[in-house]
Amino acid sequence: MDRTDKGGGGVTVVYVDLLFLLNLAANYLLLLGAGRMAGAVLTRWRIALGAAAGALYAVLIFLPGLMWLSAWPCRIACGVGMAAIAYGGEARLLRPTVLFFGAAAGLAGAVLALETLGGFSLTLERGVLYSRTDLRLLLLVFVGCYFVLSLFFRRAGQTGGGERVEVEIALAGGSAVLTALVDTGHSLVDPADGRPVVVAEASRLAGLLPRWADPSDPVGSVERCRRMGLRGARLIPYRAVGVDCGMLLAMRTAWVRRGDKKTDGLLVALSPTALGEGYQALIGGL
């Protein structure tokens, strides 16, 4: 679908489908990257919904009678709305929202620089991204941009606290939802099968654990569990700052869910102390 916009320098043909897809992809990358830098809890469907809202706004401002939507107050309101949708599960919205606006401003500056240099048809029409480039070429450009941005945001996310996600851990006594920090340096694995081990604050799972499991006494807990016929208890060796060789009590889960991915039978290592501010679990390659 397309429409023509007469005025100024002549006739401008706007292909609405291309306009929507281009802004959808750009918005998704910006929201995802800003959320990672802020260490926000990210839900991919919320990120996609926020990106789609921004892409719909980009289309609306080209419809007859809706040009007023391109005014700065409307743009700011749209950006805040996108952030509210994308990070709605986060208690503190200010940091990811500010970072999202900063990333969007950086992208706009890059687009204007490319347009000034010439030879590239990506431009800003009424404050939103638009291009008359062939869609296949545009997709290739976005693949390259995604690769570069993912490397940048991954490093920024590590220095800014890392990405946080929600995980649900199920044990024999039920399940609990925790906020987990995605830590690329987290390398604990199950000695039996080499699968990743989730580390969680024991206090958050206290109601799901057998009463003879005491995370502050991992060796004794394993012995008591074995005497009671519970075979899911393990000892996981770990090293940390100030701890050359420690042991954590680990329990075999029924399953661990991260987003749409559900993994059966992982071990969860129980930390007797708090792990950090704003999260109650650590995950690596899950």
Brief sketch in words of this structure:
With 286 residues, the protein is an alpha+beta fold. Helices cover 40% and strands 26% of the residues. The strands form three sheets. It has a nine-stranded mixed beta sheet. A two-stranded antiparallel ribbon has the order 1-2. A two-stranded antiparallel ribbon has the order 3-4.
Tell me about this structure.
It is a single chain. By secondary structure, this protein is α+β, with helices and mostly antiparallel strands. The protein folds into two domains: 2-159; 164-283, Cathepsin D, subunit A, domain 1, CATH 2.40.70. The protein contains six helices and 13 strands. The protein has helices at residues 16-38, 44-60, 72-86, 94-117, 135-159, 218-227, and strands at 2-7, 10-15, 122-125, 128-131, 164-171, 174-182, 198-201, 233-240, 243-252, 255-258, 261-264, 267-271, 281-283. Helix 1 (16-38) crosses helix 2, helix 2 (44-60) runs antiparallel to helix 3 and helix 3 (72-86) packs across helix 4 (94-117).
Present the secondary structure layout.
Layout: E1 2-7, E2 10-15, H1 16-38, H2 44-60, H3 72-86, H4 94-117, E3 122-125, E4 128-131, H5 135-159, E5 164-171, E6 174-182, E7 198-201, H6 218-227, E8 233-240, E9 243-252, E10 255-258, E11 261-264, E12 267-271, E13 281-283
Parallel strand pairs: 6-13, 7-12
Antiparallel strand pairs: 1-2, 3-4, 5-6, 5-10, 7-13, 8-9, 9-12, 10-11
